[in-house]
UniProtKB/TrEMBL annotation:
<feature type="domain" description="YEATS">
    <location>
        <begin position="9"/>
        <end position="170"/>
    </location>
</feature>
<dbReference type="InterPro" id="IPR055129">
    <property type="entry name" value="YEATS_dom"/>
</dbReference>
<keyword id="KW-0804">Transcription</keyword>
<keyword id="KW-0805">Transcription regulation</keyword>
<feature type="region of interest" description="Disordered">
    <location>
        <begin position="242"/>
        <end position="266"/>
    </location>
</feature>
<dbReference type="InterPro" id="IPR038704">
    <property type="entry name" value="YEAST_sf"/>
</dbReference>
<keyword id="KW-0539">Nucleus</keyword>
<dbReference type="Pfam" id="PF03366">
    <property type="entry name" value="YEATS"/>
</dbReference>
<feature type="region of interest" description="Disordered">
    <location>
        <begin position="174"/>
        <end position="200"/>
    </location>
</feature>
<protein>
    <recommendedName>
        <fullName>Protein AF-9 homolog</fullName>
    </recommendedName>
</protein>
<dbReference type="InterPro" id="IPR005033">
    <property type="entry name" value="YEATS"/>
</dbReference>
<feature type="compositionally biased region" description="Basic and acidic residues">
    <location>
        <begin position="186"/>
        <end position="198"/>
    </location>
</feature>
Length: 266
């Protein structure tokens, strides 16, 4: 075959890669998070915004650059972070207020994909769906650290053949990628054991961790199952409430009929 390969889109195929984006914030505190010298008086928190792989696996084989657009009050508010193989796309700052961060993803050139935009609200203050969740964020083991992390899946529809080849160039143990130069596959790694260790994932795969292994890795099938259970319970509750409301309504309608009948008689 000629060395100039054809490079067509693969029709009716879509492939995805999981990733995590979000923010982590810490209040300044003389003991746990002392304020570095030179930080303005009105800054109350240090924070980080990031885009990374699940279990800190490398994603630079499909993502080459991330642009973070911060609040205009911040000097130099449009920041570009270029890929460093094996490392998350991350930006650290300090400040006093919450705002929406615009995250623009630039894909590797082989993908021929246009950049895409995500929006993420920087959270500095404890929040939650319930008071308990909020309390946990305030006073839990991770006390005061406010995480707002999202799991997402990057979908590539009808990828170009050459890009598809990159994406599927072979899953490998996550450990072989840690701090790895070039992020590429090396000979011999193919032979490495292709099993998940401790419920984790393989690098360059679409795997989702099976189990939770600490607060740094909150996204897994286990968490998903937990959420599903919560939803199921909530659904039962809603059904019970609906049933009761219906009962009440029927009672009231009955009473209304009775009153009407009495009125007609009178
Ligand atoms: C608010 N709408 O009023 C938001 C704006 C802006 C936050 C928050 C400045 C940091 C710096 C900073 O934290 N701005 O000066 O570097 O809450």
């Amino acid at each position: 075959m000629a060395d100039k390969k054809s490079n067509k889109r693969i029709k009716s195929l879509s492939i995805h890669r999981p990733f995590i984006y979000g923010t982590t914030a810490r209040p300044f505190d003389p003991l746990r998070n002392p304020k570095p010298p030179g930080i303005p008086d009105d800054h109350t928190h240090s924070w980080e915004v990031f885009v990374k792989g699940v279990d800190d696996t490398d994603i630079t084989y499909w993502l080459r650059r991330v642009q973070f657009k911060l609040h205009e009050s911040i000097p130099n508010h449009v920041r570009i972070v270029d890929a460093v193989p094996g490392k998350p796309f991350s930006l650290k700052e300090t400040g006093w207020g919450e705002f929406e961060i615009t995250i623009r993803l630039y894909y590797v050139s082989e993908s021929n994909e246009k950049p895409q935009t995500l929006y993420h609200h920087l959270r500095l203050h404890p929040y939650g769906r319930t008071e308990e969740e909020k309390e946990e964020m305030k006073n839990g083991p991770d006390g005061g650290v406010v995480k707002s992390w999202n799991y997402d899946e990057q979908i590539f529809n009808e990828p170009y053949e050459s890009f598809y080849e990159i994406l599927t160039s072979g899953a490998m143990p996550a450990s072989s990628m840690k701090g790895g130069k070039g992020g590429g596959k090396q000979k011999g790694e193919k032979e490495a054991k292709m099993e998940r260790s401790e419920g984790g994932v393989l690098a360059r795969s679409a795997m989702i961790p099976l189990t939770n292994r600490g607060p740094e890795y909150p996204f897994s099938r286990e968490t998903e199952q937990c959420e599903i259970e919560k939803l199921k319970k909530a659904l039962v509750k809603v059904e019970e409430m609906t049933r009761r409301t219906k009962e009440e309504m029927e009672k009231k309608e009955k009473r209304l009929k009775e009153l009407k009948a009495e009125g007609a008689k009178a």
